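pinning this so it doesn't scroll away 📌
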Amino acid sequence: VDSDPYKVGEILNIFCEAGHAPRMGMRIDSRMFGFIPPFIRQSIKNLPPVKRITGALLDDMGIPPSVMSFINYPTRFDTRELERVLKGTDIEVPRLPSYAPVIWDYWERNLDPDLFKDRTLKGTVEGKVCVVTGATSGIGLATAEKLAEAGAILVIGARTKETLDEVAASLEAKGGNVHAYQCDFSDMDDCDRFVKTVLDNHGHVDVLVNNAGRSIRRSLALSFDRFHDFERTMQLNYFGSVRLIMGFAPAMLERRRGHVVNISSIGVLTNAPRFSAYVASKSALDAFSRCAAAEWSDRNVTFTTINMPLVKTPMIAPTKIYDSVPTLTPDEAAQMVADAIVYRPKRIATRLGVFAQVLHALAPKMGEIIMNTGYRMFPDSPAAAGSKSGEKPKVSTEQVAFAAIMRGIYW
């Protein structure tokens, strides 16, 4: 018992320091709530929406609701007998900062709930039905390889049957449990057929990875008579993904279990010039997923958006200038997908991507100027301008340096 007790905020900071976490710079004095009449406080606490929100937050953090009754619990401990017994001895009660690290260390080694969870991809997906779209190349193929190796019941879909069969045979030869179904995910009827086939054969889907996509790098100045570019990207990147989500969601909601991973783009965070059609379609999917997550959060159907940086895949191959800029490998990108499946965060993004989003929120004009600088530095590709020469553009030292600083950003 401490004769000079700490406040709740001070105790939290002591344990933050013991756990090497950031300290809270601002604390709320709970006495300020004393100015609110008790009957009003009680009425607010008993409102059904407030009780539901509080219950959901506590459940998410694994805190029993009964704990809330002990916050600021009016308790008085009598230390007079203890002080009398210890008087004249060398024994004294230590202050909390001196033994908080010991308590934290014991909890971390013996009581942390994460110690008893299998945080490996195998432990997460073994025996689970995992669907990957666009699984015959790039990120989709690398993700399919990881899931097959981890023991998932892997369902892969792609447009070209011959390539799809080759990938399935390759994964099966390595011991994978693979089921391949041809599908053009830009065709809504084909999406419906794909969903029906998967549900008929497997009953449900545990994890859906919306990877199939189309990217177009072309400035607006070259797009005035190409409205179909916007229609094509929306059809596959947005409508195709939403069609699958809406098809698989009923079984997920009924089982109260399901996870959707959307492969989005860092361009959504940076507002990448020349990618207006592509970024708009990915932004639409991001917005849909946030709204759907708000509806299904209490039913354990979750969404993760991966704002993927530039990855060396066949999708970017037509833009020859990307041969000279830093990119992720498909395997590195697939590891991001694996982390999304294991940990289920709301979003996965690079630090540069998050910084760009914050910059656009706090200083939008500065962000716009930076992106405009990149836009003027990197020209449209000959293919975007209508040339079929296939000539590889010359890359200047300035362009390489700028791309290295802005690693992973689309230009």
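📌 and the second one:
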Amino acid sequence: MGSGAVELYLPGSEGRPVPLSPGFVREVEDLAGRMVSRCYQCKKCTSGCPAGFSMDFQCHEIIRLVQLGARDEALRSAAIWLCASCRTCRERCPNDVDPATVMDCLKVMAAAAGVPLGRRRVRTFHRAFLATVAALGRAHELGSIALYKLAVPGAALDDLGLGLRMLSRGKLKVAPDGIKGRGEVAAIFRRAKARETRLRRRFGRAGAVEGRGGHT
């Protein structure tokens, strides 16, 4: 490697370097409004992340992938969809990188580009949850669960016993609560839809990124 070019090797890459896009970090910084390049890998975000145990890449590793321009690996990672947006990482970050916002940005870019997702159930749950908010103006747990179960083949009876116990103890409401200002919520979704259309035009060129298989 006499040219001085940076090469990135990751577990599972079978000894082949990961393709790098030098301008990727600038794209993410522009969309997220955060200086990802400020991260110096102190790992405070990862050490406080409550969802880290389930992620394929840890929080600081996602940030490093962005810094290095590993677009494919960052956008097809399951970690960006498993992030709970609790903002613990934001509070712990000494440089105000705000990894949670970066994760949200990567989700937007991945969805806009049509990147296949190995853990499809994660995105299915996101869609089910947002569908209930769009329809009702607020979250409705039972509605989200029903939409999710209907969308996942063979999942209809999963956790049925737990669901019945929660219903019997009043932990799940059958009917959603009404709210005021449902029109304002609908307007938020319309603006988000318009923004999504713009982002699809902007990032659609990345749609050929190959997803990881084998996760459910």
